[in-house]
Amino acid sequence: MSEATYDNFISAQHLKDLSYCMITLATCLTAVRLAIRAWKRRFWLVEDIAVCLAWVCFTAMTIGYICVTNAVYRIADVANKKKPPYPEVKEDSLFLLKIFFPNTLLLWTTLWLVKFALLLQCRRLIDRRPNHIVVWWIIVALTSLFYIGCVVTEFTSCRSLRAWFTVGKLHVYDTH
């Protein structure tokens, strides 16, 4: 069996530039949303708070990825034998693990906050229809359970949290 090859289709600098653009875009869209709410004098509805929290989580997650971009590319080059191992490879690997763990939680939280913001907006649209409200509550309950499931599996997908933060020890449970 041949060894898998790996090519960087985007440079580290381009990835960072894209991340900065995404932070800027998210910031502009969030600011426009809040400005429209203020202009219409309907400021700080519950879904606006959810969107602002999603923006905070997204920004923190993206900054985390910006911080590890260079290390990811260095480790990928070593793993694909493009460059020889360097003295700090273990420290870089540990740094990646320490950033990726909270970033996964931030990703799930960002996505679910946006979902809840949309659900809250839908709630206001169907407020006068009792049959739809029941369905809405079922969807909210399922969405909440799925989010809880994502968070729980983040902590339980590895044999131990210590293994998460030990280079070379990250193994998921065997399925056999």
Q: TL;DR?
A:
This protein is mostly helical and 176 residues long.
> Counting H and I runs of at least 4 residues, what is the number of helices?
5
- Strand and helix order: HHHHH
Q: Using the CA coordinates, give the radius of gyration.
A: 21 Å
Distance between the termini: 24 Å
- From the spread of the alpha carbons, the general shape counts as flat
Q: Ranges with pLDDT <50 over ≥5 residues?
A: 1-5, 172-176
Mean pLDDT: 86
Q: Strand-residue fraction?
A: under 5%
Tell me about this structure.
The chain is mainly alpha-helical and 176 residues long. 74% of the residues lie in helices and 0% in strands. It contains five helices and no strands. The longest helix has 37 residues. The N terminus and C terminus are likely disordered.
Key phrases:
disordered C terminus, 176 residues, disordered N terminus, mainly alpha, single chain, 74% helix
